Amino acid sequence: MQQQVQNIEYSASLNPLKQVEVTTNVHKFGGSSLANAQCINRVVEIIKNNAKLNDFIVVSANGKTTDQLFSLLECVDDKDQFTVQLEQLKNDQAALINELLDSSQAAQLLQQLDKDITFIDVEFSNAFTSNRNDVLAFGELWSARLLATVLSHNVCQANAIDARNVFILDSTNNFQLNEQLSKQNINAEKLANHLNIFTGFIASDELGNSHTLGRNGSDYSATIAAHLLNAKNVTLWTDVNGVYSADPRIVNTARKLFRLENSVAKELGRLGNPILHANTLKPLTTHNIHLNVASSFEPQDSGTEIGAFGDIAKSEISVTHNNELIKIDSDEFDARILEQINTRFQPIYQCQNKTCFVISQQFADLALHYLQEQGIKFSIKNVSLIAVVGYQIANRGEIKARFKRALKHTDIAQFVGSSNGHSLLAFFEHESSVELINNVHSQVTKDSRNIGVVIAGLGNIGKRFLELLPAQLARVHALENVHLVGLATSKKALINTDGIEVNQALELFQKDGLAYNNQLLLEWLSHHPYDELVLVDITPSEQFSNLYQAFFEQGIHVISANKCAGSSSTATYNKLLSTQQSTGSQWLVNTTVGAGLPVNYAIKDLLNSGDTINEVAGIFSGTLSWLFSNFDGSLAFSELLQNALEQGFTEPDPRDDLSGLDVQRKLLILARLAGFELELEDIECQNLVPSSLINLSVDEFLTQANELDEYFADKLLEAKQQNGCLRYVARFSKTETGYRAKVGLEILANAHAFANLTPCDNIFLLTTNWYQDNPLIIQGPGAGRDVTAGGLHSDLVNLCRELAVKTKEVEIKGIN
Ligand SMILES: NC(=O)C1=CN([C@@H]2O[C@H](COP(=O)(O)OP(=O)(O)OC[C@H]3O[C@@H](n4cnc5c(N)ncnc54)[C@H](OP(=O)(O)O)[C@@H]3O)[C@@H](O)[C@H]2O)C=CC1
Ligand SMILES: N[C@@H](CC=O)C(=O)O
Predict the structure, then answer these.
(1) Which of 539, 597, 600, 792 maximizes ligand 1 atoms within 8 Å of its Cβ, making it the mutation to test the pocket?
(2) pLDDT at residue 763 above 80?
(3) Is the complex ipTM higher than 0.90?
(4) What is the pLDDT of residue 181?
(5) Which positions fall inside the Homoserine dehydrogenase catalytic domain (predicted)?
(6) How far apart are CA 788 and CA 596, in angstroms?
(7) Strand partners, 93
């Protein structure tokens, strides 16, 4: 059982790193989630992993129990049938109890079950005249008692509560909930340091009569309980894994909506969404309760969170349809009748001149009966609806235009914006076809995928990347739905699921960033609310690169400037590649070699075109290129090194350049891209750092860097004596038996192609089958803030372009 040892928990919604006060949470499990012993065991696991003591667990009746009870009530004139069905019901319940508990644990529940079955039998003899709801209540009662007993024996103390002792409906006021009394009751009934298992669906009035809360009443029970308990979160654990941008059984490109603004969710419920029900959402208005829809069959999946959010969540658009509506027309409606219609039949639409309204067919009989009773003359028509729903969508001209475009070839009876502005409604006098619904969905949601970006590393290159981000987001169409949602350095992180204002990102990071650890970061990343999440790694950290495996497992995309993962061991690297490919994550590494130069892209293109890479050679270090191009003896080598550091060319620790490690890593990355399998140690490497400087801190090394001067002065003299120059060269070539790979200092003739570079330039010579006598050359600045940050932006744009054309079909699990 997950007990909060300290009195803190982490906010799941906006800033996951922020500690918030512990509050009561409510979890609701529907009938299909509790259908059999296996399902109940799964629910116990979910409770262990997601609930804490003092939380409320609201349960529906197991599986089809409510249907069985309804069926018994129908048997009023058929004793034989009643007896058979009652026996079946008893056996089913007893079997469930016996499967989940040993005989001593089960005894009391079985005894209680016998009593309940006798009660139903007696009620049958009375023709169920007065206590129908008492019979129906057994479904939830049995479910709550069983779960409480299983939890008590296996997890922690649990207490079953009969909601009829809590929720009191006022029979003198349209059976509205008596909030004050119900609040007192819930506080009196709950037990501290227990899990409180609460029956959904049922309530009673002040006279003690049982009532049910109607279709999907248990969801409603959960949100009422949350409201009375001042709970912050309600999770509806159900058989679907969230709310989609359209019914995924019909639209297989529907997107899961990870977050839905309260008012939009209510609108979906009002229009007949099969998961969100208008009543369930009613209690959410009063305080800031977040409602989560999650799957008990796939509890690790992020579901849909409903609450108060910022602009990113508010931009979500969905399409809902309803073929089971009737339109009632009359010119005899007066204010009193309209008020009754509004309170009793939840109209989806009412015409402006008040001569018609549209209601769900489930209310049709009641509504028609009511109008007849009132002597109103009216006509009715079956109609259907396709609605586009989103925050203040009625005011979004471009969506309205796209919706209309999708309906171009269809007869529309009415096209209106809802009075609350959150939906555009098109009514038809025929059923909406699957094709039409798909067409509307693809037209109105076509670029609504949200991409979150997290930047790790805000140093030399990271800061420049961030500086360039606002202009890129404003300028590049492919980045239209890209949102900066996280920033991290080694010490602190800022995550804001609602988006971090890009123009003030660094200030916000300084002000609001919080200490974090990788575990916390991974937890958030595994439940992020975006269609796609991109992590831009601009750290030099091997430890951070060890998280890639987890990122790829979560389907997160990575853009690396960090070279560690690309040059890790073959086993690690291959595992990363295979995970990345299996989950569809993208891994872009262009800046790991040559900064912004497109050498990685060039190698990939050559291979794609059927060519073979036979040799890669060149100057791969911007720092060493700059140093050796400028080193003519007029300044000490260590002075030049300091200068290269200040210009942002070097690694955070310049010994990674001087030791050859940086070049060795780059050669390995390119060789792997070219299709060779080798380890870093397979590349011979000349280390230019003397042993006296190896074990120092970076600061100590820089202070003592003049120890390098004599060695390099001698080397320069040697080169001059040979009429040559010093260059640190990388060479890889395919041989008959495998390959040869080395990086090291060479004296080159002054006329050599590698000798005549602009300081800091890299040069890559690619010798291939097709570029044999005249190798392909890529040359240009190979290090520095602008070119590297620019290269990372190029990767981001390329990635977003790929993601824009990615189609993801919904896998329907659990939806029936
Ligand atoms: N300079 C260049 O031209 C090029 C550089 N690169 C690569 O870019 C990367 C960054 O270089 P540069 O900006 O110069 O480095 P800096 O040292 O200037 O900045 C590094 C940043 O990474 C952060 N960081 C370090 N470790 C971690 C960690 N474990 N988790 C999260 N954040 C961490 C640091 O945070 P803190 O401040 O808290 O330590 C700092 O913000 C390197 O991998 C480098 O090889 C690639 C191509 C070209
Ligand atoms: N320190 C590196 C930076 C780019 O990778 C270099 O100098 O090339």
Answers:
(1) 539
(2) yes
(3) yes
(4) 97
(5) 598-797
(6) 5
(7) none
